[in-house]
């Protein structure tokens, strides 16, 4: 297990140059935008416009902050995403346009290479103690709001807002957490 502190996340331009993303984690480590197997990032969307195209990639998006945005995904009806919405999965290699509802938003973006890797993103509210099942060998727990402590076996630690716990090679295990926090759990499965 490794804690990725908010202050250490890498800032970089969007692939289409339309904004900035905060890269939380990527595999292989230090992979570029064309060569990653999986990537977890956050971005502030401050204007309407198209999403970057990533050939062969599946993505899931959740709204962390702001009043939401409407995604117009080719071949689907437009969908409004807000902080209350479940994360939305879609292909990253088809045209997608975003229209903000009322001001800028911050989103959480999980992307995996379609050939051989899948992922799942869920929002978790923590109020006191909770046990989180870790169903895949690679999991990331983002503490979005609040703070929490965690324990798995003899390993312990704490996350503040913006911190991420990266858990590798621990499939079919559990993580014990305690605190008051809104979190997002990313599960990445290599097929």
Which properties best describe this structure?
2 domains, RmlC_Cupin_sf, RmlC-like_jellyroll, 191 residues, mainly beta, six-stranded antiparallel sheet, Jelly Rolls, 64% strand
Question: Can you characterise this structure?
Answer:
With 191 residues, this protein is mainly β. It has two domains: 7-114, Jelly Rolls (Sandwich), CATH 2.60.120.10; 118-190, Sandwich (Jelly Rolls), CATH 2.60.120. It contains no helices and 16 strands. The chain has strands spanning 2-4, 10-13, 20-27, 38-45, 49-50, 57-65, 69-73, 79-81, 88-91, 96-100, 105-113, 117-134, 138-152, 155-160, 164-168, 173-190. Strands 1, 12, 13, 14, 15 and 16 form a six-stranded antiparallel beta sheet that branches. A six-stranded antiparallel beta sheet has the order 2-3-4-11-6-9, with no helix packed on it. The protein has a four-stranded antiparallel beta sheet with strand order 5-10-7-8, with no helix packed on it. The chain is globular, with a radius of gyration of 16 Å. The mean pLDDT is 93.
Radius of gyration: 16 Å
Helix content: under 10%
Order of helices and strands: EEEEEEEEEEEEEEEE
- Count all strands and give the number: 16
CATH architecture classification of the largest domain: Sandwich
Structural class: mainly beta
Low-confidence runs of at least 5 consecutive residues = none
> What percentage of the residues does DSSP assign to strands (E)?
over 45%
Our count of domains comes out at 2
For the sheet with most strands, the description reads: 6 strands, antiparallel
> What's the overall geometry?
globular
CATH overall fold name of the largest domain: Jelly Rolls
How many distinct helices? 0
What is the typical, i.e. mean, pLDDT? 93
The CATH superfamily of the largest domain is identified as Jelly Rolls
InterPro entries: RmlC-like_jellyroll, RmlC_Cupin_sf, Uncharacterised_HutD/Ves
Pfam families: HutD
Organism: Rhizobium binae
Protein name: Environmental stress-induced protein Ves
């Amino acid at each position: 297990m490794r804690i990725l502190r908010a202050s250490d996340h890498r800032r970089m331009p969007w692939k289409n140059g339309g904004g900035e993303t905060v890269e939380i984690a990527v595999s292989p480590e230090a992979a570029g935008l064309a060569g990653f197997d999986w990537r977890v990032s956050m971005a502030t969307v401050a204007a309407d416009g198209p999403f970057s195209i990533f050939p062969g990639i599946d993505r899931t998006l959740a709204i962390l902050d702001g009043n939401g945005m409407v995604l117009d995904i080719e071949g689907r009806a437009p969908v409004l995403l807000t902080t209350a919405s479940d994360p939305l999965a879609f292909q990253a290699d088809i045209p997608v346009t975003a229209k903000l509802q009322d001001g800028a938003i911050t989103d959480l973006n999980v992307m995996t290479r379609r050939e051989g890797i899948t992922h799942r993103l869920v929002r978790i509210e923590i109020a006191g103690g909770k046990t989180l099942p870790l169903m895949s060998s690679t999991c990331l727990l983002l503490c979005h709001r609040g703070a929490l402590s965690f324990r798995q076996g003899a390993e312990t630690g704490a996350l503040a807002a913006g911190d991420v716990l990266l858990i590798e090679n621990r499939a079919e295990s559990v993580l014990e957490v305690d605190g008051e926090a809104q979190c997002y759990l990313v599960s990445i499965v290599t097929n």
